[in-house]
Amino acid sequence: MSALVTSLVICLILVAGALLGTLLRRWLPEHHLDTHAKDVVRLGCGLIGTITGLVLGLLVNSAKTSFEVQRDEIRLMTANVIAIDRQLDRYGTDTRQARADLRVAVDAAIDRIWSEGQAKPGAKRPFTLTEASETVYQDISTLAPTTDSQRLYKSQALQTFNTILQTRLVLYEQSGSGIPVAFLVVLVFWLAILFMNFSLFSPLGPAALSALVLFAICASGAIFLILEMYQPFGGLMQIDSQPLRQALAPLA
Length: 252
What we know:
Helix content: over 70%
Structural class: mainly alpha
Distance between the termini: 45 Å
Number of helices: 8
Oligomer: single chain
């Protein structure tokens, strides 16, 4: 289920919680809604509200950190792709085929990274290098340097290739991160209890009902942001792939 659909479902649950509070206020006998009951319920909901606010704040911070880390890893990969292309270029004309294969491998890697980011958690497969990446590695490994500078550039290119591979593996491992379903269910349950309390002791007029709907949208919007940031390669807030795609100009 996408982040937007999940947030809309949560919003409906919160509004339903407010309506359930209205029904309970009508069904419960008056002595169950006296001043002492109001004090106990409001104190308890104050505690739940504090815990919920803290948890939401921690989740937003964690999701933002995860998003920024993966965005920085894409930037690092872009820089290393440019670096390995320059190292091969300085090696000499013998690396022309390797540089051409590198451009194919980068496009294939981008398509795979962004498709993995949009896949369902259960659809994750064991990691394997693409055929294009294997070709680039073979191209670099089979180079036969004849000068010290060529040996240096070959060594640097292999080292940079391994750095790109390590970054790619980290991105692969992070592709399945997100909020556990049980954690999300408990958080929504807390919010539903709060919304039920809003209408349990006070009648809901048009203005109050509109306000509760707006509050529900705001609360579900916070969860939407969290879910979106945990999916940096899919959804409305995904990391842009164009800088990586345009990192290497076509060979002349």
